[in-house]
Amino acid sequence: MTTATTSRQRAQDLVARMTEDEKFAWLSGPMAIPLTDELKAQGAIGSAAFYPGVPRLGIPAMQQADASLGISNIGGVRPGDHATGLPSSLLLGATFNRQLAHDSGALVGREARAKGFNVQLAGGANLIREPRGGRNFEYISEDPLLTGELAGHSVAGIQAQGVVSTVKHFVANGQETGRVMVSANLAEAALRESDLLAFQIAIAIGKPGAVMPGYNLVNGHYASENAFLLQQVLKDEWGYAGWVMSDWGATHSTVKAALAGLDVQSGANLDDAHYFGQALRDAVREGQVPQSRIDDMVARILTGLISVGALDAASPDDRMQPVDFSQHKLIAQRQAEEGIVLLTNRNATLPLPQRLARLLVVGEHADHGVLCGGGSSAVTPIGSLQLPGTSIMGMDVAKVVQPSSLVTAIEEESGARDVVFVDGTDRQQVLDAARNAAAVIVFAQEWRSEGLDAVGLALPDDQDALIEAIAGVNPATIVVIQSGGPVTMPWRDRVAAILAAWYLGSGGWPAVAGVLFGRVNPSGRLPVTFPASEAQLPRPGQIDPETTTSNPATPRKGGIIPLDYDLEGSDVGYRWFTREGHQPLFPFGFGLSYTTFELAGLRVSVDGRYSASVEVANTGACTGAVVVQIYVDKQGADGFVRRLAGFTKTTLAAGERATVELDLEPRILARYRVGGDRPGFVIEPGVYRVWAAQHAGDDMLWQDVAIDELRRIAP
């Protein structure tokens, strides 16, 4: 790794020796997955994008791959290719574990590098404002601190392997239905305190080589040509040195986009014009775009590549080293084990005892594997089922079931004399089998994909009624939910236990079985609020997908669709529930364990350093991990509702006690002042209440602290 200054200088030296054709070859390009009967570009591995190298200057080709959850292979563009499927980013969020974020990122970086890719389109850092969002499984949480911290560490892990990572989708990309038509409208101060803050934290930690705006508009301007976001905030204020690439088919202009800060038109064959091709050359010749801007675009790309060492591999063969897929599967398993959330456990039903007489496993394809979210992030390890899914940008996107048999895992982990599997399609068959089982494990599922949102929060395909019926004949019914976000649970009080398992990845089967039978003590905590009903959401209604356009490669239906995010402002997720007094189904940060914990002795410091310490005790009978969460609100009429200001995960043996210390993020205590001579984050005088808690609704342990003078936070 070189310093930013050194990387930039080296990049500028290379740009000075490049021809105009060489420069422009890197400013736009088609998707490197052939559409219809097209052929891949010569030299392209086959994935999101390919940009030709400049061998005479030692500049390798740029090979870009999707995504945060592993190396995808859309359309089988690389026949026979194998990759590790990571659990969803929501599951990563549920771990509250920075080191796991780095480790999983490093896994993706190693596999990308081994396959010859030097740019990974990873780093999903959008806040989850819309719980029904189709792409939420690619994002981490509804909270800016948790999202920024884990996304940043994941990016750092990828880039430590010599592969550039993006962060995306910058910014306020809240939903998929109508994603190319929606304008996220939000006042600057609220945007700075929420969505932008998540990216600011992630970029500071991860130092990504590239940033990708989304398809949406922000306050009336497309994110890919939004000068406020790309130039003023990202490049000028934050000093970002890398490049800004559009999403595929998300460029809408030449001069406006170039001057606003967009550096690359990605997937130009999906746009309605080649904006950064001849049109950009003409704009330079006519004086509408200065030549210095072109040189800056290319220098930023090279800076990002140089900063991670991607220009210094001696040859492609040196990059393509063998991958230890067995070790990678264990990393994915470890992540899954820490991200599964135990939501209810009546009468200590879990962990199940081993060697039961008969277990019933219910769930579509549970004998084959685990569900994977759809779209550009979907990873298809060898042996995956690829079922009919949806269509994005003219390509069929499969509903992928990754090979990781839940039934086999339960057979191996349980030692039960008889494990019976039924897929659930025959209701009477299920009920007959359930009556004679010592316990029933139902694997419910809800598939989400890029390009479309979930319709409501209920489980699809009448699964709620099936679960109700099973619980009616067997009280030892355990529900394991594979989902891309929150779901409602009308049967919650009738089942014995519920696990939120998200999308589990290649190590999913032993992770779930380990939790069910006690080899793993669950320590996941919810990264999103589970609403009791859609009526509790800021926007209970949804945009009609039949009257809108979601794919960039198709003509728009109608005009821009404004979304009023000022309704909740910076109070996203649990902050909104607190402000409105809603009681959720399960609060943000919630999760049970097979042991119990107590917090005591909270001490808070706001003199110079913002920190908290708290005594933690494991008061149960087995080793377990607790996520200590520090929340803060400002009291009074000019205050704000509670916000997560710090967190740490601590493992304690039965009866063990420890004191944990946490640094608090000052910008969480602050408000963003707009305008004037010194805009920025300011901590106002007043009384602040600080909680040490085990979830966002935990009010047991708090301390009030006073701040007497106004404090500005350095940019």
Keywords:
715 residues, alpha/beta, 29 strands
Describe the structure.
By secondary structure, the protein is an alpha/beta fold. Helices cover 26% and strands 22% of the residues. It has a six-stranded mixed β-sheet with strand order 1-2-3-4-6-9. The protein has a six-stranded mixed β-sheet with strand order 10-18-17-16-11-15, with helices on both faces. A hairpin with a 5-residue loop joins strand 20 (597-605) and strand 21 (611-618). The radius of gyration is 25 Å and the shape is globular. The mean pLDDT is 95.
Global structural class: alpha/beta
Compute the number of strand runs.
29
> What general form does the structure show?
globular
Spans of at least 5 consecutive residues whose pLDDT stays below 50 are: none
Chain-averaged pLDDT? 95
Largest sheet: 6 strands, mixed
- Work out the helix count: 19
Radius of gyration: 25 Å
Oligomer: single chain
- How helix-rich are the residues, as a percent range? 25-40%
Indicate the proportion of strand residues: 15-25%
